[in-house]
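#help-structures
NK: newbie question, is this the right format to request a structure? protein is EFMT1 methyltransferase
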Amino acid sequence: KMDDDDDIPQLSSHTLAALQEFYLEQQQREGMKTSQGFNQYSIGSIEEDWQLSQFWYSDETALCLAKEAVLAAGKGGRIACVSAPSVYQKLKEQDGEGFSVCILEYDRRFSVYGEEFIFYDYNHPLDLPENLLPHSFDIVIADPPYLSEECLQKTAETIKYLTKGKILLCTGAVMEEQAAKLLGVKMCKFIPKHSRNLANEFRCYVNYASGLD
C-alpha cells in the first residue's frame, strides 16, 4: 500500500521559515497595536491585501505625497484619494490642518473611516454617490490597482470627474505615455518607494507645478 503522505505537498524548510517569520512579525505587530494605544489611522493599521493588489507606500513616501497634496489643495482644500489608502492614512495623521479628504477604495475594511470612505470599483468609474459632486476636489491622488491600460483608462474617468484640475497619479513607469494621453500628466523626479519592493519601476505624475521635482 502506498504511503498516504506522498500526496501531501511538502513546504521547503526555507518557505516554512519565511512563513513562520511572517506570522511572528504579524503577531508582534498585533501586540504593538494593543500596547501602543494604537492609532487607527497609521500605516499598517490595515494590513496589505495582495489579493486586492494592494501595496502600501513606505512611510516617507506616503508622508511626502500627503504633504504635497495638502500644499496643492491649498487652504480649506478638498483631497480625494483614489485607491491610495496609505496617503489617506498619512493625511488623517495631519488632521485639523484645514483640509478635508475622502478615500475611494474597493477594500471595505476602510469603511472604518466612516463618512469619508466611498466604496469604489474602477470597473464602474462613474458609479459614485450622488453627493460626490463633479469637480469638487482641489486635487485627486490616484494609484490604479493594476498596471494595465484598461485600469488606467477607467480610473482616469473617475479622476477627471472628481478633480477641479490638479492630478497626482502614481503608477508604473511603463504607463508614462498612456498617462500623458489620458490625463495630461508628466513624470516627476520624485521616486515613490513601497514598504515592500515592487517588481515594476514606479513613478509619480502630475499636471501642475508640484514640489515633487
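mod (FA): yep, format's fine, and the C-alpha cells are attached above. The longest helix spans residues 13-35.
NK: thank you!
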